[in-house]
């Protein structure tokens, strides 16, 4: 494109500049941003981020300026280059896993080593024997074997037992034959498989002497280590473009009776005995159950920060963008109003801002609970092995783990739904410019969306929560309940079934939390009545179960947010006025949720119609007004580096329009092209300076 | 990529084939698909579509197979080639505007002539004088001038009065000086401007002798007609990639004191007098007000068919996809369950299926009402000019137009929100595969999204509806109300304020409609109380106004759907069992909406809590079960050609997995590449056969 003329370079945005508007915003609030950031991340993590982002910024391959313009193949190529560089930086700087992950997060795109770094290494480490570690893990850690985790198939996702790939034990030569009997048996969606991996952990149905033993993991080489071409009888490739995640080579994989040796089956928990040809179970992989709980807890915590990126961008832009005069404004204030001043914008953004903190504290508390419980169980096990005094602790630990597992299912579904849908709300709150890739929200949203489907589909998961709540309710009714939070709210509800309740939801924060607990308990016993008394079909109750799971998760989030603000640890870290604003965010989140789910709260008897109506017309509107002046400082406390956000609209300095213009006119490769616009000409591009502008 | 091996070619999906499953679905229902299609489209339109799609399929440039794979520049290049070919086909086949639009719809992507074909031509035709038509319109219709409509700026979208581009009348040489005083004055988002247009209708603030007369349209040349390079002191280009709509060259445009002649200002309604240098208004552009109403009505009707594409894809795929056994299924039925059998899937998809028809009939009825009213007003005008007996008719016509205008604002917002959000629900209902571009939903959704922002932002528009409803309520209270549907429901509500109401929403369809009317009236008078009695600030009521507008629009959709099914015209066209299923869809749409908005209905006194609870647990669940067997035939009646849908999951023949696999392994250009996966190698692509595979 022709160079930008001087008269264009001299132009500035009209009116008060974005930088001035954001400075005014920041002056209006007394939130101590740094201390709040420390509460969210700890100073250590903040320092680590800063250090690592500086390393990345200095490497040309991580330059983001063409990310939004590039097509699929270019993006994948760049992502591969970045993955390699990142690995080499890790070695060079001796980064630990946390530092490596911090770097990946800052790059903010899924990379071709993604599944190697995580599921491939973890599965071999956790489910392999020492012999298998020696054979596979060492080379995998050296990136000589590059792997993926091949579970999902073209025809089966959620239903793992329905997988069609087979691994048949061959008595004669002591091998397994890996085979794809149908097209639907093709592995599908497997990250890092499409182009990058030369190895895969393949989940396949184990058959011994004609009998099925269910899905088991096999380590299988799929590409030549030198030529990187697929091995014989292996058909593998990339599954094509997706709504997002296009820097990742999700792949397909078919086997035509491929023989693999005995060592291929990961054998820590079950194996085929070489001498007897019998299936042997070596213990229960309950570890995996714990790992899943841990993974889901991290999704909950991440959901807060994923959403916070969108809220940061939208809040800053809505403070810079001005549109229309306030209808009731006095003539002495003739300027246009900041969009963030409109209550219709506030009601969309500020509850999401509250949700970022709510989800963060909830995820953090779950992860703490999980870690403490693991410690306790390990200690119990140690005692058990030593003096025989541990079993109760193990029992109590596994009751808590069961509770945590069910809770984590519901919260994973709820939090990732809030984050995904919330990002789209943020995008639209940016008006037309939200649709531009330069907003930074759309691409981020598109990459995040699969989280609502993987690690348990958000709708499917709600059945697990409901099953657990029904089981807990039955145990409470039969007085055989273990002691945990779930049974405690169910017992409380039951004990008051004759006298009902009265929650001062607008006057008391602890009553507000209790009202959420009450509604969960009410819906649980309703569902139990449908299933056990009325004998309704499971399928007819799925909608009820979905609502029940959502109600329970909302209770958990409200409770955890509340408790985080009550805790001495929190109070020691932040000052009173920040705590006051956070408490308002808690109320906004809880009351806005309560109002949206008004029918259920009312039906449960937890609140009156009058309270719901007052919550909406008075309390929530008042909270919006009170939180409004702190909005920019609150998003500042999430401490996203501009380089990480990569958003014109979300810039910390408010130079929104300058940045939009710069990207469009200076970075946009389409502007190196001149078209022939006339229908009677077959020429399309009469001038194409793309190559020249690259030089 | 290496050719697909024979052993892969021989594979088929497991279990009952998709084609068998869809055949079974179709055999289960007695819906007469062809007659229902005729009701939706008319046979004439169906024939036209078929004819035109056949023409398009025979032209290589319209081949869609690389659409999902191509990057932005390739997509734009192809879109330009298609736009040219389409124009030439139109000339060759002498297509009228309807036929041309049918072709554009079938291609299903925005094209670089999009704004030329619509806003550029229309604005000059409607707002130009005969002299201007001669100067601009003739060449525009010949595609020698290719134009766009440049209104929105970097800093101003919704607030047209805030536009910053100026057009200053120069007394001395009788010219206008078009100028962009700020960076934020840059035109932005302008379709067809980025690369294609050589002309633009520019909305600019008219200044005469230092006085501002507000925004006016100017026809301005921006690029050289031969070289297609920007003219001097014009800075123009493409604004960069977007969430969707990437086949369109949305552009930016800045002027540095560019002189244009007097004829440039479109002068049908206002002009600068050459002799006196005075601003002259030639009459009111009330026409434009009508046109906007018309445009919004078409958006409502389109929303039905836009959503129907997603519902078609998801419904067919959920009938083909099987996952898990039913938990309560007898051991004699060991197979996996069709996903469409799960109530949690039904509750997401079937109300949207109902919405497709509801929106279609609503849009159609609005367009009919608009046309009839225009005819009546024209007749009244004719009478007025002749015998002086017309004014009442004109008055009544303009009362109806005002009502229709307000209604169209609310319905545009409501229907495009349902369609956009509904498409995302459809995409997720397809599970993991919904995320693949081959689902066809994601790209379609991404291209549709701007509809929620343009032609009036969906949130902004609700204020216009509320303003109109408040005005109507005031006129009803002061007994000065014109007679139209809105004042009628308000009067009914008022007349019963002492005795309340009792609607048999579960037993009577007309009561169900009346309950929606009641809630609208209730919310209107509540809002009026807040504004007029309690003197609340306008800004504090925006959330209430949004809810009010939504409630009113829901009433309109429910009423129009109901009336369409009652009408003799409808009943003459379809048989009883199809009418019966449509009536169930009406109930599902209305009751599901009522249940979701339960708090408002209850607060208005229109229904009891018991009714809301029964609606959910009984009626809606029963309706899902009753509609389920007809789902596939119902979506078949929307009659989308497979070529138009371009979706693996939505194929009419159910060959879902074969098509997914074919596209991934045969069409995917990334599979022509072999990477070097090792971090210690700087080579990224060790083999790149893309060019070879193109030959």
Automatic annotation (TrEMBL), chains A, B:
Limits of the Acyl-CoA oxidase/dehydrogenase middle domain: 148-258
Active site: 455
Pfam family, one: Acyl-CoA_ox_N
Residues reported in the UniProt entry to bind FAD: 152, 191
Keywords in alphabetical order: FAD, Fatty acid metabolism, Flavoprotein, Lipid metabolism, Oxidoreductase, Peroxisome
Pathway: Lipid metabolism; peroxisomal fatty acid beta-oxidation
Acyl-coenzyme A oxidase N-terminal domain: residues covered: 33-146
Domain Acyl-CoA oxidase C-terminal: 510-675
Any one GO CC term of the record: peroxisome
Predominant localisation class: other
Gene3D superfamilies xrefs: Acyl-CoA dehydrogenase/oxidase, N-terminal domain, Butyryl-CoA Dehydrogenase, subunit A, domain 2, Butyryl-CoA Dehydrogenase, subunit A, domain 3
Cofactor: FAD
Molecular function via GO: acyl-CoA oxidase activity; FAD binding; fatty acid binding
InterPro entries: ACOX_C_alpha1, Acyl-CoA_ox_N, Acyl-CoA_Oxase/DH_mid-dom, Acyl-CoA_Oxase/DH_mid-dom_sf, Acyl-CoA_oxidase, Acyl-CoA_oxidase_C, AcylCo_DH-like_C, AcylCoA_DH/ox_N_sf
Protein family: Belongs to the acyl-CoA oxidase family.
Protein name (Swiss-Prot/TrEMBL): Acyl-coenzyme A oxidase
Species this chain originates from: Amniculicola lignicola CBS 123094
Lineage: Eukaryota, Fungi, Dikarya, Ascomycota, Pezizomycotina
């Amino acid at each position: 494109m022709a160079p930008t003329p001087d008269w264009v370079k001299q132009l500035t945005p009209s009116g008060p500049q974005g930088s001035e508007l954001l400075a005014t915003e920041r002056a209006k609030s007394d939130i101590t941003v740094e201390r709040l950031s420390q509460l969210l991340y700890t100073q250590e993590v903040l320092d680590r981020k800063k250090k690592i982002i500086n390393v990345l910024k200095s490497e040309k391959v991580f330059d983001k300026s063409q990310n939004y313009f590039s097509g699929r193949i270019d993006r994948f190529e760049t992502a591969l280059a970045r993955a390699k560089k990142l690995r080499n930086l890790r070695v060079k700087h001796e980064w630990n896993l946390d530092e490596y992950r911090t770097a990946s997060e800052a790059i903010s795109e899924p990379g071709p080593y993604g599944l190697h770094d995580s599921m491939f290494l973890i599965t071999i480490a956790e489910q392999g024997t020492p012999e298998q570690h020696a054979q596979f893990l060492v080379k995998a850690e050296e990136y000589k074997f590059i792997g993926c985790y091949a579970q999902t198939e073209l025809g089966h996702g959620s239903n793992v037992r329905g997988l069609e790939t087979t691994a048949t034990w061959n008595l004669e030569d002591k091998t397994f034959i890996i085979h794809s009997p149908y097209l639907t048996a093709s592995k599908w969606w497997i990250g890092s498989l499409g182009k990058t991996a030369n190895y895969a952990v393949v989940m396949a149905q184990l058959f011994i002497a004609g009998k099925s033993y269910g899905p088991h993991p096999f380590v299988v080489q799929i590409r030549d280590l030198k030529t990187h071409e697929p091995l014989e009888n292996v058909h593998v490739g990339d599954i094509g473009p997706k709504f997002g995640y296009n820097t990742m080579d999700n792949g397909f994989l078919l086997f035509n009776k491929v023989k693999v040796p005995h060592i291929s089956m990961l054998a820590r928990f079950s194996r085929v005995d070489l001498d007897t040809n019998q299936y042997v179970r070596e213990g229960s992989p309950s570890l995996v159950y714990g790992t899943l709980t841990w993974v889901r807890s991290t999704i909950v915590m991440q959901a807060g920060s994923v959403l916070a990126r969108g809220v940061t961008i939208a809040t800053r832009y809505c403070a810079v963008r001005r549109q229309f005069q306030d209808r009731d404004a006095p003539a002495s204030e003739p300027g246009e109003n900041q969009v963030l001043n409109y209550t219709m914008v506030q009601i969309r953004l500020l509850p999401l801002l509250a949700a970022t903190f709510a989800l963060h504290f909830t995820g953090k508390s779950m992860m703490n609970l999980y870690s403490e419980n693991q410690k306790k169980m390990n200690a119990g096990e140690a005692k058990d092995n030593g003096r025989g005094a541990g079993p109760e602790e193990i029992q109590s630990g596994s009751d808590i783990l069961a509770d945590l597992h069910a809770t984590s299912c519901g919260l994973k579904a709820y939090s990732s739904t809030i984050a995904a849908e919330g990002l789209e709300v943020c995008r639209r709150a940016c008006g037309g410019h939200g649709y531009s890739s330069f907003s930074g929200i759309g691409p981020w949203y598109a990459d995040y969306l699969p989280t609502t489907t993987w690690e348990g589909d958000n709708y499917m998961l709600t059945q697990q929560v409901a099953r657990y709540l029904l089981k807990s309710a039955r145990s409470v009714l039969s007085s055989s309940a273990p002691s945990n939070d779930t049974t405690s709210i169910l017992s409380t509800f039951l004990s008051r079934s004759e006298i009902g309740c009265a929650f001062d939801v607008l006057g008391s924060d602890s009553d507000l939390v209790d009202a959420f607990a009450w509604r969960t308990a009410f819906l649980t016993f309703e569902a139990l009545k449908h299933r056990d008394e009325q004998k309704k079909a499971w399928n007819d109750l799925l909608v009820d179960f979905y609502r029940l799971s959502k109600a329970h998760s909302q209770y958990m989030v409200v409770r955890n947010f509340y408790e985080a603000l009550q805790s001495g640890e929190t109070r020691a870290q932040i000052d009173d006025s920040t705590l006051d604003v956070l408490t308002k965010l808690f109320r906004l989140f809880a009351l806005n949720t309560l109002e949206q789910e008004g029918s259920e709260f009312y039906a449960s008897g937890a609140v009156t119609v009058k309270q719901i109506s007052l919550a909406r017309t008075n309390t929530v509107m008042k909270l919006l007004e009170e939180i409004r002046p702190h909005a920019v400082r609150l998003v500042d406390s999430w401490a996203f580096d501009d380089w990480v956000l990569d958003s014109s609209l979300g810039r910390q300095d408010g130079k929104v329009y300058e940045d939009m213009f710069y990207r469009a006119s200076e970075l946009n490769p389409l502007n190196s092209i001149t078209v022939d616009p006339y229908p009677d000409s077959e020429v399309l591009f009469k001038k194409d300076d793309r190559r020249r502008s690259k030089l």
